[in-house]
Amino acid sequence: xxxxxxxxxxxxxxxxxxxxxxxxxxxxxxxxxxxxxxxxxxxxxxxxxxxxxxxxxxxxxxxxxxxxxxxxxxxxxxxxxxxxx
Length: 85
Known about the structure:
Blueprint: E1 2-4, E2 16-21, E3 28-29, E4 33-36, E5 39-44, E6 55-64, E7 67-71, E8 76-77
Antiparallel strand pairs: 1-5, 2-3, 2-6, 4-5, 6-7, 6-8
C-alpha cells in the first residue's frame, strides 16, 4: 500500500508519517519513505504491516518555520481489493 502527500513535482517540506490501529497508540513511524530530492513525499507499507478491517489512523506532520503543520486525515478501514492468483 502506498500513501502520498503534497505535490510530487515540487516538494516543499519534509513530512513524517505515523500510523496506528484501533483506538490509540502506540504510533509507528513509516519504515519506507518514498522520496524526491531527499524529501519525503510518501510512505510504502509492506503487506505484513497492514491489518485489514480495523480502524487505521494516519498522522502526517512537519516542522516548517518553527511551526508544526499537520495534514488532516480520517480514520480508514483497510480492505484488500486486489485479485489473488
